[in-house]
Amino acid sequence: MNLDFSFLTAEFLQGFVLKGLIFSVTLTLVAMVGGILLGTVLALMRLSGKAWLATPAAAYVNLMRSIPLVMVILWFFLLVPFLTGPISAEASAYITFTLFEAAYYAEIMRAGIQSVPKGQQHAGFALGMSYGQTMSLVVLPQAFRNMLPVLLTQTIILFQDTSLVYAIGAYDLLKGFEVAGRNFNRPVEAYLLAAGIYFVICFSLSMLVKKLQARIAIIR
Description:
Blueprint: H1 10-46, H2 51-65, H3 69-79, H4 81-84, H5 89-115, H6 118-126, H7 131-161, H8 173-183, H9 187-219
Helix pairs in contact: 1-2, 1-5, 1-7, 1-8, 2-5, 3-5, 5-7, 6-7, 7-9, 8-9
């Protein structure tokens, strides 16, 4: 098999890859921020001690964590339009990834909150703070610091998972290489380049997370 990468030019990167890379990164950031916010709410609901809050939150987390992401992407894209009308593949991806990742971020945040000594919460109550104030001002900042490396690791996995939007035709990084492979009649080379790009990005981010984890450990 003769590999030919002569099509790898600046025009190729700008015409096929850049658009997909921008969408993949944007999808990752939006799903990360939205997932952490929603996941934190779910974690607090599960730790509230009130059944009417903890039960639906636990059901949501367990349901989402038990279904493959690609199935959730397809279900949302195919079924939701019957209720809301037509929806673009990109908009569907933003919503689906945020809702799905929230379940994973919720478990991370729940572990982070539980890692904070109970005395911190009792101290907040002793100062006259409400449950919400104690969580937002005392517990959550410490939990975020404890769980920051894990949150970032989950975000790297999220970036890898963005390639699954191929199932609904969204133009992500992998889709860009796929289209280029068809246009230049070099699918093998295109997929090899895609794998290399994903590896470089994810490996670099993993190294940064390791350094951050070491730095946080030193601070402690």
